[in-house]
Write a structure and sequence with these properties.
With about 55 residues, this protein is mostly helical. The chain contains three helices and no strands. The protein has helices spanning about 5-25, 30-35, 40-55.
Length: about 55
């Protein structure tokens, strides 16, 4: 029984689309908090760098 390679591509396409959608939903609250805070990108970057430094200690 031969399986056409397009079926594999379709399967990987579905997995990729589902992963993107899941990532988008998981990061929605973070993205909305950045937008609502009204902080400029430099300030948001500093806040992220401080959080990253705390997590590496």
């Amino acid at each position: 029984m031969a399986v056409h390679s397009n079926w594999f591509l379709l399967g990987w396409g579905v997995v990729a689309a589902a992963s993107i959608w899941k990532f988008w939903r998981l990061t929605a609250s973070y993205r909305s908090s950045l937008r609502s805070s009204g902080t400029p990108p430099a300030s948001a970057r500093q806040r992220l760098e401080r959080a990253w430094q705390k997590s590496n200690q």
